[in-house]
Amino acid sequence: MEFITQHILVKTNPNTKPIKFDDIIGLEEAKQILKEVITLPLEFPQLFDNQEEHPLISTWRGILLFGPSGTGKTLLAKAICNEMKQHITFFNVTASSIISKWRGDSEKLIRILFEMANCYAPSILFFDEVDSVASKRNQLEHEASRRLKTELLVQLDGLIQYGQVFVIACSNTPWDLDMALLRRLEKRIFVDLPTQEHRRMLLHRLLHQYGGERLHYEQLAQNTQGYSSADLVLLCRECVMMQVRNKNLPICIEMQHVQQAIEMIKPSNSSHWHENYVQFAKQFGSSVVL
Ligand SMILES: Nc1ncnc2c1ncn2[C@@H]1O[C@H](COP(=O)(O)OP(=O)(O)OP(=O)(O)O)[C@@H](O)[C@H]1O
Ligand SMILES: [Mg+2]
């Protein structure tokens, strides 16, 4: 109990700038689904909690955000945590916080975690990088990790009896996830690389302060195909830092500086991998009518 309160229950840190949905560029569909899944049941509990009268109205309790690295999965979860903090308790569960070296402890921790989430309901259990605790089961794995996975599955199955407890999980290797777990994370949202338009918006937001309207953002967006949002942040940081290193102050960024940084910083996701996400999304993904 104490461990969970100390390490997993999220307390907002007044020193960090809270993330809002509007800070996240693109990903409209993902934002829409998250808001809908979590806010509708809170808004209309009389519809969602009355299975006898409305057996068809139920909510998705398990959500999987999957996609290449650096595309905003963790950011989306942080935004929902921040935007809903008045109404929802947020538990941030990382692999290191639940994998215990003491035999049997991890399962117990999972059990208590779900019970606590139920006590504090409405609540969200956020499992970032879920692949590290719930990859496919195989012969070689340790018995303790198999038991941990089984407990997780049992708890997820029981979720529907609990009050309003939601599970959000993130993964960038969704095809490695245990099939049973995948089935329980019913709503699967593809968080893809930014489109050209979204790259333009992000580059503009990051560089406008130093490059104003001198920079051709459209052109830069074209030249950064395949870059994730995190790659673009890195690219812009490199651009600015180059100026600082060369003591070109006040910082004034020109097109050639950005081009130079593009030569140095390459996308971190390969296009070959990207195809795997698209395939996975076709097979298992869900979308929504906006
Ligand atoms: N859609 C976006 N809009 C604005 N900034 C973004 C967006 N996506 C990512 N970023 C930037 O990239 C950083 C990393 O994003 P985040 O941690 O959400 O990636 P991730 O998808 O969780 O990656 P991983 O799978 O590697 O954990 C963020 O802190 C933010 O600066
Ligand atoms: Mg992440």
How is this structure best described in words?
This protein is of the alpha/beta class and 290 residues long. It is 49% helix and 9% strand. The chain is built from 13 helices and 5 strands. The chain has a 5-stranded parallel sheet, sandwiched between helices. Helix 6 packs parallel to helix 7. The longest helix has 17 residues. The radius of gyration is 21 Å and the shape is globular. The mean pLDDT is 85. The protein binds adenosine-5'-triphosphate and magnesium ion.
Kindly state the number of beta strands.
Answer: 5
| N-C termini distance | 41 Å
Chain oligomer state: single chain
Q: Structural class given helices, strands, pairing?
A: alpha/beta
State the order of secondary-structure elements, H for helix, E for strand: HHHEHEHHEHEHEHHHHH
Helix content: 40-55%
User: Which term fits the overall shape?
Assistant: globular
Bound small molecules, by name, code or SMILES, are: adenosine-5'-triphosphate, magnesium ion
Provide the low-confidence segments as ranges: none
* Strand percentage: 5-15%
